[in-house]
Design a protein that fits this description.
The chain is α+β, with helices and mostly antiparallel strands. It has a domain of about 50 residues. The chain is built from 3 helices and 3 strands, in the order E-H-H-E-E-H. It starts with a strand and ends in a 26-residue tail after the last helix.
Length: about 80
Amino acid sequence: MRIGSDKDVAEILGISTVRLKARISAGAPVPPFMKVPGCKFRRWDLDSVEQWMATFTVGVIADVTRRRGRPRKTAALPIS
């Protein structure tokens, strides 16, 4: 078990520590953290944070060449 601070977790998530604290106070999904009795700081199990990150998948855009709006004449299909 590797223990980390808010700064370590923010680096793993790719956000600032201010954003991490805002997400926690807003009730947004964040990795599980620990509150040590007698300590005012949160502590994170960095292995659990990495496992939490692995549960999310990145989708692939099917057609990246498609443009928004009305098609241009050059993009129109030929009539056969």
